[in-house]
Amino acid sequence: KNNVINLAEIKIYQNGKKIADSIDIHQSSYYDAERFPSERLTDSDLKTFMHTEVQNDPRVICSFPEQTQIDSITGWCRSGFSKRFQNGEFHFFRGDDLVHRWKFSDSSLVR
Questions:
Q1: Of 10, 52, 56, 9, which is closest to residue 33 (Cα–Cα)?
Q2: What percent of the chain has pLDDT over 70?
Q3: Do 68 and 25 contact (CB within 8 A), yes or no?
Q4: Which of 56, 57, 62 is nearest to 41 (CA)?
Q5: Residue 51 near residue 30 (C-beta atoms within 8 A)
Q6: Which end of the chain is more exposed for a tag (fewer CB within 10 A), N or C?
Q7: For 56-100, what is each residue's pLDDT tens digit?
Q8: Residues 10, 12, 18, CA angle at the centre, nearest 5°?
Q9: Structure letter (DSSP) for residue 39
């Protein structure tokens, strides 16, 4: 199914410290790489956002340099477009192995 992701912000915490701005965050495609890059996810500005192209299985990939315990993840959708993240999922990998999947059952879970 063709979908798109456009998120305004993501915050990832470890031991109470925000770490999202210190990890590699990529997206599976770019609607416009100059205007909507993945760096928008950590700029603390909810008016900016990243945007993938319409594609099958769009993704935001967060790469950690080493095994990391995550306390919490909070994401904000682009204002007015929360339905685009309805039924979205976070997938957690160790190498190429999927170790956990967390599915949003309601887009209201994403602020």
A1: 52
A2: 90
A3: no
A4: 62
A5: yes
A6: N
A7: 988 888 888 888 888 888 888 888 887 777 767 777 887 888 888
A8: 110
A9: G
Phi-psi label, residue 101: left if phi above 0, alpha if psi -120 to 50, beta otherwise: beta
Output the six-digit token pair for 40: 């928008």
What's the pTM value of the predicted model, to 2 decimals?
A: 0.78
β-pair type (17-18, 7-14): antiparallel
Provide the token pair at 85: 């993240």
Would you state the pLDDT for residue 105?
A: 53
Largest CA distance in the chain: 37
The reported pLDDT for the residue numbered 54 is: 92
